[in-house]
Fold each of these.
Amino acid sequence: MLINKYSKLNDIILERYNCMPVILRFGIQFGFGDKTVAEVCKQYDIDADFFTEIINIFIDKDYFPQTHLQEFSVKTIIDFLIKSHQDYRKNKIPHIEKLIDSLEWDSSETKKNKALIKNFFLQYKTEVIEHMDYEETIVYPYSIKMEKILNNEQTLSIKELRKYAINIYADTHDDIEEKLLDLKNILIKYLPPSSNLETEQMVLFEIFRLEKDLNNHSRIEEKVLIPKIKLIETELKQMI
Amino acid sequence: MNNTRFLILEKSYIIRQGIKTILKDIANVKIIEDTNYNLPLDSIIENTNPSIIIFNCKLLKEQASLYKTLKSFEDKIKLVVIKGTNKKLHKNHIFDLSIDIDSSKAEIFKNINLLINEINPLSNEEQTSELSDREIEVLKNVAKGKINKEIADILFISTHTVITHRKNISKKLGIKSVAGLTIYAIINKIIIEDELDEIQ
Ligand SMILES: [Fe+2]
Ligand SMILES: [Fe+2]
């Protein structure tokens, strides 16, 4: 079931608790009583239509209103992307790391398994951080600038336009969630069971969640941000 | 039992969901949807590697070249066409199965299962997850950090063959990254950790 602006936020969470992390990511805190999406969004100064669409794409994997999403401002889209990055950096990734730290194997033979998994995850973490750093220092600022120029908030310089193009990003943007599939398969199929299955299960749950989250995140970058910036670039080029 | 991969070519969301609902009730079916219509069909097929393609007969009329493209995969992929009750297919077009839009659930089940049984004895052998001796050799070198060209030289095979082996290894194991493959190699003693230390 998809949500709309008039759905009560409490009902949304009770029915689809999976979208809770995304709600919190917007900065919304618990204790919102019976308020609807529109009311809560107003209180936190969030664009309720944008919020609704984002929650919906997280709820339903078949739902992706590409055209509608592209109508929101670059700033609105990027604000959310950056908030997601912060959540991955500060919460989601360190949480998995901690869980992996508390995994244990019995025999001395299998003790090294923890080191294997830990190394793999640390290497993965480095890659994800590099990926996000690149987006935050190059891609997002460039995108924001393009929108500002379009809105006449900043002057258009041809030099600026030639320095970078969103296509450079489009061509190299890779699936950061792909390696998580490797990790899942290693834990489920190949490693002997750890002596604390409950923790191992939690590691897997968190990996599944992060994978889905990253997948939605990349979809917004690829199907909303990139095409939108491409359009702005074309428009700006015509203005020269 | 291995999964039979179905590729659904259907633009209409309503019909696509309908086909999916039916297929989901059949055991061991993996549904691939591809709504990325910007790509040419042959690359969609190569990327998704289906064993059965289900498509709407309307597509044949919209795209004249479609039949030829589909038929070029004839020896690998079964073709299932969905057509309206009174619609006649082109007399030169031959498919493995034609499903009438008004067919009952039981009828569709029976026919699709027959089709799956035709394919599976073959794919069962092909899709064993056991690595061959050659693949183990390749994996060992991948884990040691060797690049394709080096592996080719060591094993006296072409780089192209190395790439094919690597693709098959990843498919069998469900692990794509070098880091992941290395872990697999260590767990299964294909490579000993001392060997790794030597290299690093
Ligand atoms: Fe990102
Ligand atoms: Fe990204």
Note: The CA atoms of residues 129 and 173 of chain B lie 7 Å apart.
Amino acid sequence: MNEKIKKHILDLSVVRMCELSPGYFEIHLISACGTIPEMHPGQFVQVRVDGSPETFLRRPISVNLLTVDHTELWLLVHAVGAGTKALACLNEGHTLNLVGPLGNGFTLPSSDEYDTHPLLVGGGVGTAPLLFLGQELSQRGIRPTFLLGGKRKSDIMQLEHFQLLGDVALTTEDGSVGERGFVTQHSIWHTDAFTQVYTCGPKPMMVNVARIAHEQKIPCEASLENMMACGLGACLCCVEDTVEGNLCVCSEGPVFDTSKLKWI
Amino acid sequence: MSQLTTNIGALTLKNPVMTASGTFGYGIEFEDLVDLTGIGGIIVKGTTLEPRQGNPYPRMAETAHGMLNCVGLQNKGADYFCRNIYPKIKDIDTQFIVNVSGSSPETYAECAAMMAELERIKGIELNISCPNVRQGGMAFGTSCSGASSVVKAVRAVYPNTLIVKLSPNVTDIAEIARAVEAEGADSVSLINTLMGMAIDVERQRPVLSINTGGLSGPAVKPVALRMVWQVFEAVKIPVVGLGGIMNATDAIEFLLAGARAVEIGTANFIDPAVTVKVVKGINDYLDRHGYDRVENIIGLAHKQ
Ligand SMILES: Cc1cc2nc3c(=O)[nH]c(=O)nc-3n(C[C@H](O)[C@H](O)[C@H](O)COP(=O)(O)OP(=O)(O)OC[C@H]3O[C@@H](n4cnc5c(N)ncnc54)[C@H](O)[C@@H]3O)c2cc1C
Ligand SMILES: Cc1cc2nc3c(=O)[nH]c(=O)nc-3n(C[C@H](O)[C@H](O)[C@H](O)COP(=O)(O)O)c2cc1C
Ligand code: FES
């Protein structure tokens, strides 16, 4: 369905930049023409980072949120290396060049599935696409449950936005907020019944989430973060070994049904 | 408006800017982002007789002003191309050229013969220079006898424009160019990627799954330009130049060094619309310098 969403080369300007916790930045972008083109939760953009020979290629970043009125695009960036650190240094008024939206997003339940109870499991900056997904589910009258995890309290971001969209369960490894441990150890897996799991975060976390979902016979979709060059399905650098052979994460993902992946 | 048309053997390109194999898919991946009909030619993904899975992930490492790749010719095979891809591209108004690879002169020839059957494919580019496959690929492109054996086998079955893509991983590229010219190649294109590597210092292991890969992007441009210069002086057949072209000025350097056309690869990842910008830039340059045809500047830097 979202394969038909048109791709664009966009110059957007930064209207707001905030450091949510050390190293994590929320960037709000607007378009000179007023509206941002259509995007689907789980899709990403390829961001151009100017300024250094070391950041030659574009950086793939998930769509964190496209506001309901299409006026703002949000990115959530974890500054880990040269490229993401350069993004963290942007100021209001700066222009950012993006290619997107790219890839296939999460499969949304059709609106006649009233008994839908999705669980959205995110770790660290992997929670980024889940906010947009939560908004889209909520728009369709579905109340999602979010299970968010991190090493410590400061790794859990945008909590106030998630709480507006659904129920939120938390875990931290140091126990500073929510249950102590990993998302896969949270009691909610035993107390609630879910019809669909969506996950994004570090690969070991997603593999374990997929295992639990599989044991409980719940369909599961995961968003992968393989290293990319083109982001368009042209270079074949980003492949994941799947039951259908090597598939491009950028064009055939980044969201995959985990039954297709060789994880379990 | 200057005249941008250029010829590679019997193949006429509406302008001298093509896309490099392996960096532009089949073109259709980019159709939302750039006007494909504004590009002189699209050289599609490396195609082999049988399907290939390619090398394991990771296949890419970013380096200063460039990147390494070891994709290893992943493709669904010649038959799949003819049945499923060709129908989707055949009505797009530009020249499509298929980049053909193989593991023996016979498999190159068989694949080339299949391409000869496709009406809209008026030329092929023989890849005898892929550094990322164990069998074939660069093994043929690094010796005169290896290169000759492949070109000879293909020439016997392929009547249309035959471009041979040369490897820079040799001591004397001009010698290889002369060898393929002698076997009847219509043109040579250069360069393919330069063998290189990157090491992850935290993991203390090579970054790429097969340790080494091919370097592309602006980091290789001076090497590529020098080789185009040398090959232009060594052969009479048209030369197609590529390696690190990011903008019109880079492309014009290649034309002045003797290239009749250029290919743009890695730059498409940075700006998916770079090709049409380069076409416009070449046109502006010709106007500014008072040339009415692009032909007038080809090899100009060699003249006193
Ligand atoms: C589809 C997709 C969506 C993504 N969404 C987001 C997002 O919303 N927010 C965000 O902060 N990050 C996201 N990432 C990861 C982000 O692209 C990388 O962190 C970034 O490219 C690193 O660039 P750098 O120059 O800062 O670091 P580099 O110096 O290039 O690398 C620093 C570290 O990050 C690792 N890394 C580099 N590239 C990637 C990559 N593509 N994926 C994973 N790890 C990588 C390196 O191995 C290294 O350990 C996403 C990646 C993909 C593929
Ligand atoms: C990801 C990638 C895949 C490539 N695949 C092929 C291929 O299949 N066949 C081929 O002849 N060259 C292949 N090449 C080489 C390019 O066509 C080109 O020769 C090289 O990248 C240098 O040009 P550039 O610096 O403009 O990219 C590939 C290059 C890259 C970066
Ligand atoms: S990044 Fe080029 S194919 Fe996925």
Note: The first strand of chain B starts at residue 6 and ends at 8.
